[in-house]
Amino acid sequence: MSWTPEQISEKQKSLIQNIQRLGDVEALELTDFRQQDGLIHPLLST
Questions:
Q1: pTM higher than the cut 0.85
Q2: Per-residue pLDDT, 46
Q3: What is the mean pLDDT, run by run of 10 residues, along the chain of 46 residues?
Q4: If we measure between CA atoms, which residue out of 20, 21, 18, 1 comes closest to residue 10?
Q5: Domain enclosing residue 28, as ranges
Q6: Domains of the chain: total
Q7: For residue 4, what pLDDT is reported?
Q8: Which residues contact 40 (CB under 8 A, 6 or more apart)?
């Protein structure tokens, strides 16, 4: 199977977006959310 340059470009963009989303999820996993005064405050876990 051979991809066109447009398909390759689209797949690259999609892959980059997926990697960025994974980074966002990992950042959230490292954040400890505490509720205080009715608001949720993110605190970095140590």
A1: no
A2: 46
A3: 90 90 75 61 56
A4: 18
A5: 5-44
A6: 1
A7: 95
A8: 33, 34
Place of tokens 């140590």: 46
Instruction: Write out the two tokens for 12.
Output: 């690259």
Q: Any idea how long the chain is?
A: 46
The CA distance from 4 to 34, in Å, is 49
38: left (phi over 0), alpha (psi -120 to 50) or beta: left
3-class SS letters over 1-46: CCCCHHHHHHHHHHHHHHHHHHHHHHHHHCEEEEEECCEEEEEECC
pLDDT of residue 6: 95
Which amino acid belongs to residue 22? L
